[in-house]
Amino acid sequence: MTLAELDDAALAAALAAEAGQLLIDVRERSGLTGKALGQAGDEAANRLLCEAIRAARPDDGLLSEEEKDNAKRLGKRRVWIIDPVDGTREYGEARADWAVHVGLALDGVASIGAVALPGLDGGVVLRSDRPLALKAAEEHPRFVVSRTRPAKEAEAVAAALGGTLVPMGSAGAKAMAVVTGEAEVYLHSGGQHEWDSCAPVAVARAHGLHCSRIDGSPLVYNRADTFMPDLLICRPEWADRVLGAVARLA
């Protein structure tokens, strides 16, 4: 079966996995490290993903962190939103907490996606069409936060709710930590772009998690301005308490 014959979810998963393996190969064979490795990996993975999506879905729009934006996507109902290496720093440092994002927004909603975590043993791909059973949530919520720039709002809300902080690298790795039961809450308020969250949100929503802005309003994709100020992905049983704490602390 060719890529063009795959359904959208299978295509997203196949491409995320392939790009993830390519990134591992680049790291092992190039001899590069740090920023140079990150740049080489970004370029290679972006080329693979963009060429494959354009060949398999020529009528769809495409938004990538690593390509010049094409405004024609704004007139499309179906837009692929990708991040070839989410967590370039972590990838360059040979850490495990980086990801590949392949998401599809339908009428502005993150609907289909796959997030590859190639740095984990054996590589892992979490996908919107194959949701896993959620593990039992902890009594005291664990908040995944940036290992270098933890959001003040996340620190304050965690303190207010008796939670703990779990430092982690990329946005995709943090979002998937909530999916896999390593954390209950991912609250980010430092600003991101659409490619940072489209695929993770599609996967998280498919797993029954709450996904919104930190004021509770919907996340909207495929806009002219790709900047997204904040994001909340959390276990549904914690959503009201987290949103309430954000409002009280604002």
From TrEMBL:
Domain of life: Bacteria
Gene3D superfamilies recorded: 3.40.190.80, Fructose-1,6-Bisphosphatase, subunit A, domain 1
Pfam families: Inositol_P (PF00459)
InterPro entries, alphabetized: CysQ/Inositol_MonoPase, Inositol_monophosphatase-like
Stored CDD domains: CysQ
Record's protein name: 3'(2'),5'-bisphosphate nucleotidase CysQ
Source organism of the structure: Erythrobacter fulvus
